[in-house]
Design brief:
single chain; alpha/beta; eight-stranded parallel β-barrel; 15 helices; 10 strands; 44% helix
Length: 369
């Protein structure tokens, strides 16, 4: 696969598709074999985490016998993403302690890339970059050669992520979600490239959602003439020159083969992209008049997660992703639409002037109480 620099600031050469470790087999030997197969197929960057079923230990096994020199090893941590100890704090000393543990678990002398994991709200950014904070410890480790490059991942709003990048001359790489359904971070990818920051795309195939039955996705697959929704999703990302590499979770050898095959097919052509944009624009137009997740309706007096319920409805109504919508709705248990009593306190606050109680009743009908 063709390599490109991971942004001007970082510059590490990476292919369009990289190795995600969250879905690796539980057996370490089997996982190591799979990682090596991905490296042999041309992938280079490995995104590891302590919480991915001990993926760091699996990566360590895979990197033996000369494979370390062929890999770009990425690690990440923050206390709001995972507390290894109950007293973990976003401090330089705690960051150093966790990094040293990760180097030991990965059995490497340094990591090529270290990400501050999940800067999801402004408070996270301020905590990480404050004097004596996480960043200070990571920068010190970089000076000592334990970390080569630094970045952060985020699920915050595009506006906030762009703001973080603009004031972070230390940031060399950013990792955000970007796919067919969530293409709103296109502006983040564009801003990153303008700043020389490398871009890693997570959830390129929607965390497996695109493998689920969907009339909308099936129509896109038919019109574009590709083999699957997953291929469509991967090639769609390749059409964005601001996306340097996408993380593909691998659970079996077929995942590697399919990912590499999709990349080798290249970006979608002009006619395929026209079909894509026509349908995506149509869906965006509907969504524009639906919930924008602004949060002005919150907090609900009864504890309903109104934006969360509306996101489930959007996934169901606009994308026909029933399985995914129901799974997401189940995660709201205790804060789902069943708690709505129709008090109407949200009505005057909704910037879209939506009949929110009616939508809550619709959610109960669709997803159950």
């Amino acid at each position: 696969m063709e390599l490109k620099p991971l942004g001007l600031r970082c510059g590490l050469p990476v292919p369009p598709i990289s190795i995600g470790t969250a879905r690796l087999p539980h057996d370490r030997e089997a996982a190591a074999i799979l990682i090596r197969a991905a490296l042999d197929a041309g992938m280079r960057l490995i995104d590891s985490s302590r919480t991915y079923d001990d993926s760091e230990l699996k990566v360590a096994l895979a990197l033996k016998n000369g494979y370390r020199e062929r890999a770009v090893v990425s690690a990440k941590w923050s206390p709001w993403a995972v507390k290894v100890d109950p007293d973990d704090l976003p401090t330089a000393s705690c960051a150093r302690k966790r990094l040293e543990e990760q180097l030991h678990r990965l059995q490497v002398d340094y990591v090529d890339l270290y990400m501050i994991w999940l800067i999801n709200i402004p408070e996270h950014y301020h905590s990480a970059t404050a004097p004596g904070g996480l960043l200070e410890g990571i920068l010190r480790a970089q000076d000592e050669g334990l970390v080569r490059h630094i970045g952060f991942s985020s699920h915050d709003t595009p506006q906030n992520i762009c703001a973080y990048m603009r004031k972070s001359d230390w940031c060399e790489v950013v990792m955000v979600s970007y796919n067919l359904i969530n293409h709103h971070n296109a502006c983040v990818l564009r801003q990153a490239q303008e700043l020389g920051i490398g871009t890693l795309v997570m959830n390129p195939v929607g965390g497996g959602k695109f493998a689920q039955p969907s009339r909308v996705l099936n129509a896109l697959v038919r019109k574009t003439g590709v083999s699957s929704a997953a291929e469509l999703a991967i090639r769609y990302i390749m059409n964005n020159p601001n996306a340097d590499s996408m993380l593909s979770g691998i659970a079996k050898h077929a995942d590697i083969d399919d990912g590499v095959r999709c990349v080798e097919c290249g970006p979608l052509d002009v006619e395929q992209m026209r079909f894509m944009h026509d349908m995506l624009d149509s869906i965006d137009e509907k969504a524009r008049h639906f919930c924008t997740a602004c949060g002005y309706c919150m907090p609900c007096p009864q504890g309903v997660d109104i934006p969360g319920v509306m996101a489930c409805l959007e996934r169901q109504l606009f994308w026909d992703l029933s399985d995914s919508a129901r799974k997401k709705y189940r995660m709201l248990r205790g804060n789902d639409a069943a708690k709505c009593i129709g008090c109407g306190s949200c009505l005057s606050k909704c910037t879209q002037h939506l009949p929110v109680p009616d939508e809550m009743r619709a959610a109960c009908r669709i997803f159950g109480n």
